[in-house]
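Curious: why this fold?
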Amino acid sequence: MSITFDDLKAYLEDDLGIGTAQLEEETPLYSSGLIDSISLIQLVTFLEKKIGGKIKPTDLTLDNFDSAARIIRFVGTR
């Protein structure tokens, strides 16, 4: 299963309580402090449920998870 920008945006706002009014696909999430390590783990759990598979700890990099666009690209390879 794939994930969309709208899916991510809704999860960030509804489940993590993060304001997403100014969020764009390339907005840095972790490196900007928008999400923290706990939020990242919650996001990974959400993604695993959506895609029906596990995400390896070694895949938790800024290259894969620092923006919605990177997350969508990464999930698309699973």
